[in-house]
Specification:
This protein has 16 helices and 13 strands. The radius of gyration is 22 Å and the shape is globular. A hairpin with a 5-residue loop joins strand 8 and strand 9. It has a six-stranded mixed sheet, sandwiched between helices. The protein has a five-stranded parallel sheet with strand order 2-3-4-1-5, sandwiched between helices. It is of the alpha/beta class. It folds into two domains: 116 residues, Rossmann fold, CATH 3.40.50; 252 residues, Orthogonal Bundle (Arc Repressor Mutant, subunit A).
Length: 381
């Protein structure tokens, strides 16, 4: 079994909180991961498990074993019971492990019933740091879902297409998305076409024939279900006018590639979206590695009206790191110099130019490195 990066932080939180919620997309491995901590498992999407939990609740909460409640948001009645059980024995830690695939529904129940009693941990699909570094290109092409091809390449891209179909026809409507499945499917196709670009809800709404405010509501659901990342712009105090629209990315590269009908690595490299796909893949690996450490940060990007930009800015509070990401093995001195110049303007403490260079070039402030090298900087932060 592949060791998941969040294991250490989850173990720590179970010692200091009565309940922990592991959130993340469907099929990211939450259930398999959770069952390594306890065999007392209940799937709250199943009527039989709900009935067992309902009838046996007084006996269940007396047990010393960790109680795993999968898809907890699907049975809201359980949250007041959890709160009551915790409050009756507030000194007991590590009692409940909640799993959830859609954060808005789960967060609503948490904020109403379990505020102050629970910690949140996100489990992403597989990260490069959880695999061997020589799997980087496979991870980029197939994505990180355990069943999506990274462990068995024959499953890509059919698995991804089935996954998207089930989300649009069943899961997203069940989670509250008001759009009809064909509209959702068309929206996802459009999001694939504008992957990595500045978000323009009005343009998308014209194509779909839906009000732009409604489109933004749909995007909230896509973000909450871990399909899409909305990267907000940095509002640095620069003399130049800054772009204020967010960027929209697919969080899993394999899903993006399946939507674009990319089936192999040669097709990926020759596709017009290859650079944007590589950029988002690197961003997800960086942010996933920080989340697995429990690191506090705020991610942004920066783009000025004259097209100067920084792909990723990490605000750690006291320090700021800037990342430029290029799909090249040999960045030009001009590209590095321009990145360094704009990083100066935001006062970046560390600058990391991430590309596919075989021999990284490191200095105290500026580093031109590959993805494994960038992840090693974060590991040692």
């Amino acid at each position: 079994m592949i060791n998941r990066s969040i294991k250490q932080i989850l173990q720590s939180d179970l010692k200091t909180y009565p309940a922990v919620a592991v959130i993340g997309p469907r099929q990211s491995g939450k259930t398999t991961f959770a069952k390594t901590f306890s065999s007392r498992y209940y799937d709250l999407e199943l009527l039989d498990d709900r009935t067992r939990l309902d009838v046996q609740w007084p006996e269940i909460i007396k047990q010393k074993d960790l109680i795993i409640l999968d898809e907890a948001q699907s049975w809201p009645q359980v949250f007041p019971r959890i709160r009551s059980a915790i409050d009756n024995e507030r000194s007991r830690m590590g009692r409940f492990l909640l799993l959830g695939s859609v954060s808005p529904a789960l967060m609503k129940q948490v904020s109403e019933s379990l505020a102050g009693r629970l910690s949140l941990v996100e489990l992403t699909p597989f990260l490069l740091s959880e695999l061997s570094m020589n799997q980087m290109d496979n991870l980029w092409l197939y994505g990180g879902y355990p069943e999506g091809g990274i462990l068995d390449p024959t499953r890509f891209p059919r698995w991804q297409k089935n996954y998207i179909t089930l989300l649009t026809q069943r899961d997203l409507p069940n989670w509250g998305l008001p759009a009809k499945p064909p509209v959702t499917q068309r929206l996802l196709q459009m999001l694939s076409a504008v992957h990595g670009q500045l978000w323009n809800a009005s343009k998308i709404s014209q194509s779909l024939g839906v009000d732009y405010k409604t489109i933004n509501t749909y995007i909230d659901y896509m973000t909450g279900s871990f399909l899409i990342r909305r990267l907000e712009p940095c509002h640095a105090n620069l003399k130049k006018r800054l772009i204020k629209s967010p960027r929209i990315y697919w969080r899993d590269a394999g899903l993006l590639h399946a939507m674009l009908n990319i089936t192999n690595f040669d097709q990926l490299l020759s596709h017009p979206t290859a650079g944007a796909s590589w950029e988002s893949f690197v961003i997800e690996q960086i942010l996933g590695a920080l989340q697995a450490k429990g690191q506090s940060y705020q991610p942004f990007f920066l783009r000025t009206s004259d097209q100067k930009e920084i792909d990723l800015i990490l605000d750690f509070g006291q320090k700021t790191w800037a990342f430029e990401i290029k799909l090249t093995t040999n960045p030009s001195p001009g590209e590095v110099k321009q990145f360094d110049k704009i990083a100066d303007q935001i006062g970046a403490d560390k600058r990391i130019f991430v590309c596919r260079i075989p021999n990284p070039i490191e200095s105290e402030q500026m580093n031109v490195t590959n993805l494994p090298g960038a992840l090693s900087f974060l590991e040692n932060k």
